[in-house]
Design a protein that fits this description.
Layout (H helix, E strand, L loop, with lengths): L3 H14 L5 E6 L10 H8 L4 E7 L2 E6 L2 E6 L5 E6 L8 E7 L3 E6 L6 E6 L7 H4 L12 H10 L4 H6 L9 H10 L13 H20 L40 E5 L2 E5 L6
Antiparallel strand pairs: 1-6, 2-3, 3-4, 4-8, 5-7, 6-7, 9-10
Helix pairs in contact: 1-7, 4-7, 6-7
Bound molecules: zinc ion.
Zinc ion binds next to loops.
Length: 273
């Protein structure tokens, strides 16, 4: 599933490609992907509007148009592609935004889990989807005291807490494992057992790992590629994720993989306390 760095990479690519384009037709092939209104209303709302800017909040892409904002969530495998209208439409294309310049922004999703909804312009914070999100980890709004307080109050595993988008937005399975490895904390530790210095390390590594991953275009794991088909490079920097059975890059102990709340979880039993 794309996490913050991958969604940010998609955002940056779309920001280069689609602002200034005016929608003159929308085709919705899979109605359940449209939330909050009927597909007909979705289509009619968008026709005639011009894309102005592409923003991101957590794992959501936000397309600001003339009169509204379109929220898109890629979920497991959703992808945007900018193509020409005469280009072949693959069978996994579920939503098409056709522009007046004869190009099309197509939303492809093998799993059909992706979602879109419309809110009034820059009104995303009023939607249920965005309202429940915690702070953006790479913004000034992500500060240590509330993060520490929430972690100390929970008996849940620290990794599970990091995956909870209410604590901090945008972290998924890959980056949670990398953050906790770099912070030298075991993923299954209850939040309430963490020391101040451990929490500070987790906080700092959250910023470091995500910042580095954004700079490298995210991680290309399985099917994720950005909107121009380019691959991210951060997968080469992953230290534990996908490395079960291999020696830890720090101490040489074999990296273990366990299931934690149903999620494959990688850690070094020696480095992480
Ligand atoms: Zn180690």
């Amino acid at each position: 599933m794309p996490e913050l760095p991958e969604v940010e990479n998609v955002r940056q690519t779309l920001e280069e490609l689609v602002p200034g384009k005016t929608i003159d037709q929308v085709i919705v092939q899979v109605p359940k992907m449209i939330h909050g209104m009927e597909p007909d209303e979705f289509v009619h709302t968008l026709i005639g509007q011009t894309i102005e800017e592409v923003r991101r909040r957590g794992k959501f892409l936000l397309l600001d148009l003339t009169h509204c904002t379109l929220l898109a969530h890629l979920r497991m495998e959703g992808k945007f592609r900018l193509l020409n209208e005469q280009d072949e439409v693959s069978k996994h294309t579920h939503i098409i935004f056709h522009f007046t310049d004869h190009t099309e922004l197509r939303f492809l999703d093998v799993r059909k889990f992706g979602t879109m909804e419309i809110t009034h312009k820059k009104g995303e914070e009023e939607t249920k989807s965005i309202q429940k999100l915690g702070p953006e980890p790479l913004s000034e709004l992500f500060t240590l005291p509330p993060f520490a307080e929430k972690l100390k109050r929970t008996s849940r595993a620290v990794k599970t807490a990091l995956l909870d988008q209410r604590l901090v937005a945008g972290i998924g399975n890959i980056y949670a494992d990398e953050i906790l490895f770099r912070a030298k904390v075991r993923p299954e530790r209850a939040g309430s057992t963490l020391s101040d210095s451990e929490i500070t390390r987790i906080y700092k590594e959250t910023k470091n790992v995500l910042r580095e991953a954004v700079a490298l275009g995210g991680s290309t794991i399985r099917t994720y590629v950005n909107s121009q088909g380019k691959l991210g490079q951060f997968q080469e920097k992953l230290l534990v994720y996908g490395h079960a059975g291999e020696p830890c890059p720090i101490c040489g102990t074999t990296i273990e993989k366990i299931k934690l709340n149903g999620r494959g979880t990688h850690f070094c039993p020696n480095c992480q306390k």
